[in-house]
Design brief:
567 residues, alpha/beta, TIM Barrel, Oligo-1,6-glucosidase, domain 2, Immunoglobulin-like, eight-stranded parallel sheet, five-stranded antiparallel sheet, 16 helices, binds alpha-D-glucopyranose, binds calcium ion
């Protein structure tokens, strides 16, 4: 009898366990044995939606276009796509001027198209990250239209309105980062409103609790629709000094827009920013979502502030200092990597985005650009941390700015010409093949396709085992499979070497060595296997004639060697 009861109990428990494992999916915030969450092992990829793939052939990319490329992205090794703003917008700042936070701009499709994209992405285990423009809305947002309508309107205090200092004088000396005064007079109500960016992007007043509630509401609205997180735009600029103190002028002279050079002390990086980030994070945590930050920090101490006390703010503040190492200098990269590796949170590495010159041109010497593109990929995709790629980087797309002012689309390129040519150069259409318009669209694309599309495109490079694209695929594959690259510690080796950047990733019973020749001449390094606790090395991935044997790595000019180390 006892036995029968025991057997029945066992059967019952067994059925419960089976039932559970069949129906329950791991929650999004589940951690692995290293305590890591999904986004710590994921490869992110930024898509500038206007420029990625145009499904309806109007010259502008769209959501359906992105959906047709999900298989390409999966095959490349992408786990999450960050789509730059695709919400309704007058497109003054190409989507960074949002007129409705809970919809899709008709030029990109519909909410139904978004839902299809989200479910197709999910099938492939690709997460979707949206871009949350938290500092400002469009001047065409209904909140601002109401705010502007009268001094007593319900939304007046949703933005920052002030009287001028005197007749024809703005409230203070703050200048817009896109040129001119940061204040615009509204003649109807005879007050000025504040805009850190274009006048068409009025700053929201985050000191107003109603603004907070509305924006936190937007955040959950998208999580409920299947979004796995946000990239938070321009977080430095959320708050301003309530007393509107004038900013100090740093030195004589003017910037590209003819404005004085200000220390933006009273309108950026105010401590109140962190209250908002903690609030956004609380909402994110309810959905197991990740927050990425556009965080332009001066040093790692500042970066640590964005992770927050006990990591209660952004999980992924981007380290832009890495993008500012503007030459192939092992010493400078070593220094920056060590600094970020020692930060209080998980590192986030980027080398390119829609606001800066592409890495291909920043590091290219004009002769070995493809080789150098592979070197940069081997560098930031093998570090301890999460990388965020930028579309086209994987095929060696070049920055192609307008050659005359009339062609420029990005408004700052027109006001700042010729010193500031704008950001069109890094936003050109994705190069899919060598057909007309690089296979991006059958219509004339919104920005011209760079001439390099004939040689640098997905179709051609997929056929060439030595292409930049095939190299990216190999590194990304290694990164997903090798536990030392996923979870291993980072250790710099040969720290006095001015030619080769080399480091180890050490994990339990094995490790990986990465050696990158940042010069135009052949180089050799020793790995120091024994001293570092390893017994032997074998090649995992190398470019050209670069190789490793015994304790030594030989590298061709700009060569890459990645080796597996056993203990
Ligand atoms: C961020 C975006 C940039 C935009 C600005 C204003 O810096 O990356 O493209 O122009 O914010 O929203
Ligand atoms: Ca289109």
């Amino acid at each position: 009898m006892k036995k029968v009861v025991l057997l029945m109990c066992a059967l019952f428990i067994g059925t419960c366990i089976l039932g559970l494992s069949a129906s329950a999916q791991a929650p999004a915030h589940a951690v692995d044995k290293e305590g890591h969450q999904w986004w710590q092992h994921a490869v992110f990829y930024e898509i500038y939606p206007r420029s990625f793939a145009d499904s309806n052939n109007d010259g502008i990319g769209d959501l359906k276009g992105i959906a047709t490329k999900l298989d390409y992205l999966k095959d490349l090794g992408v786990d999450a796509i960050w789509i730059s703003p695709c919400f309704p917008s007058p497109q003054v700042d190409f989507g960074y001027d949002v007129s409705d936070y809970e919809n899709i701009d008709p030029m990109y499709g519909t909410l139904a198209d978004f839902d299809v994209l989200a479910s197709e992405a999910k099938k492939r285990n690709i997460h979707i990250i949206l871009d949350f423009v938290v500092n400002h809305s469009s001047d065409q947002h209904k909140w601002f239209l109401d705010s502007k309508s009268s001094r007593t309107s319900a939304h007046r205090d949703w933005y920052i309105w002030r009287d001028g200092k005197g007749p024809g004088q703005p409230p203070n000396n703050w200048t817009s980062t896109f040129g001119g005064s940061a204040w615009k007079l509204d003649p109807a109500t005879n007050q000025y409103y504040y805009h850190y960016f274009y006048a068409e992007q009025p700053d929201l007043n985050w000191r107003n609790p109603a603004v907070k509630d509305a924006m936190f509401g937007v955040e959950s609205w998208w999580y409920k629709r299947g979004v796995s997180g946000f990239r938070l735009d321009a977080v430095d600029t959320l708050f301003e000094d309530p007393n509107l103190k004038d900013n100090p002028i740093l030195r004589p002279g003017t910037n590209a827009f003819g404005d004085p050079i200000e220390d933006k002390k009273y309108n950026t990086k105010l401590p109140e920013v962190h209250d908002v980030l903690r609030g956004l994070r609380k909402v994110a945590d309810q959905y197991g979502a990740v927050l990425i930050g556009e965080t332009w920090t001066a040093d790692v101490a500042e970066l640590n502030q964005y992770y927050g006390q006990g990591n209660n703010e952004l999980q992924m503040p981007m380290d832009f200092l890495f993008t500012m190492v503007n030459k192939l200098s092992p010493a400078e990269f070593r220094k920056q990597i060590a600094a970020v590796n020692g930060a209080s949170g998980w590192p986030t590495f980027v080398i390119s985005n829609h606001d800066i010159v592409r890495s291909y041109d920043r590091y290219g010497d004009g002769e070995h650009n493809d080789q150098i593109a592979k070197l940069m990929a081997a560098l930031y995709l093998t570090l301890r941390g999460t990388p965020i790629m930028y579309y086209g980087e994987e095929i060696g797309m070049k920055t192609t700015p307008a050659t005359n002012k009339e062609e420029v689309k990005d408004p700052i390129g027109r006001t700042g010409w010729p010193q500031e040519k704008g950001r069109d150069g890094e936003r050109t259409p994705m190069q899919w093949d060598d057909s007309a318009n690089a296979g991006f669209s059958t219509a004339t694309p919104w920005l011209p396709v760079p001439p390099t599309y004939k040689t640098h495109n997905v179709a051609e490079e997929s056929k060439d085992p030595n292409s930049v694209l095939e190299f990216y695929k190999k590194v990304l594959k290694l990164r997903h499979e090798n536990t030392a690259l996923l979870d291993g510690s980072y250790k710099a080796i040969n720290e006095a070497d001015d030619n080769v950047l080399s480091y180890l990733r050490d994990y339990r019973d094995h490790g990986v060595v990465v050696a990158l020749n940042m010069t135009n001449a052949p180089q050799k390094i020793s790995v120091g296997l024994k001293g570092n606790g390893f017994a032997s090395m074998k090649s995992l991935l190398a470019t050209g004639s670069s190789s490793g044997s015994g304790d030594e790595v030989s590298l061709e000019p700009y060569g890459v060697f990645i080796g597996e180390l056993s203990k």
